[in-house]
Amino acid sequence: MTGPGLTLAGIALVLVILWANLRPWWKGDRNPAKLKSFGSGALLGALSTMCGGGLLGYLAGCTAGAVNAGGGKVVTGTTGQQAGAPVTTGSLGDLTPAGAVIVVLIASGVIFAFRAAGKDERKRMVGGVVCGVCLCLTAGVASALNWLPGLINGAGQQLQAAVQGAGIL
């Protein structure tokens, strides 16, 4: 991923987005299926931070920059104080070529779901992407999800082994 780290004001905006998406679910019946749109977006956002370049890596960097700018305006406009101090950044790690194939498949599935979703579900997916990207740029969340790159890269290796074992490649 290329682009800036996150600022404290950016984190504030991300937490507002997270709260706006999780509060209705928490106050409702807490059906896990109702988190599907937000969760799929958050997964794509998290995986985007593992992309060293390409469209997903570029968009992850742009997302962080936009959140920092928006968060700065929100915090300054609300409180009159600047909260642009950077927070400690983290990284989920790197993708292998086989893991990159899994990311492309997941991204395609999320895009297809986005195109088929209604207006409210699309908003939840975009909110999930923003939260996934930005929270995975922090040291705490990146550390908590340190198993994700191994899972994605391992799934890519399994796919490659299955395809090569079948004599297709």
Structure characterization notes:
With 169 residues, this protein is mainly alpha-helical. It has one domain (8-165). It is built from seven helices and no strands.
Outline: globular
**Structure summary, number of beta strands:** 0
What is the averaged pLDDT score?
93
Note the run of SSEs as H and E: HHHHHHH
**How far is it from the N-terminal to the C-terminal residue, by CA?**
30 Å
- The total number of structural domains is 1
- Point out poorly predicted stretches: none
Briefly note the structural class of the backbone: mainly alpha
Subunit organisation of the chains = single chain
The largest sheet is: none
What is the count of helical runs? Answer: 7
Helical coverage, percent range: over 70%
- Strand content range: under 5%
Rg, rounded, reads: 17 Å
Give a quick precis of the structure.
The chain has helices at residues 8-27, 36-48, 54-79, 97-116, 119-135, 139-144, 148-165.
Task: Show the helix and strand layout.
Blueprint: H1 8-27, H2 36-48, H3 54-79, H4 97-116, H5 119-135, H6 139-144, H7 148-165
Helix pairs in contact: 1-3, 1-5, 2-4, 2-5, 4-7
Keywords:
169 residues, mainly alpha, globular
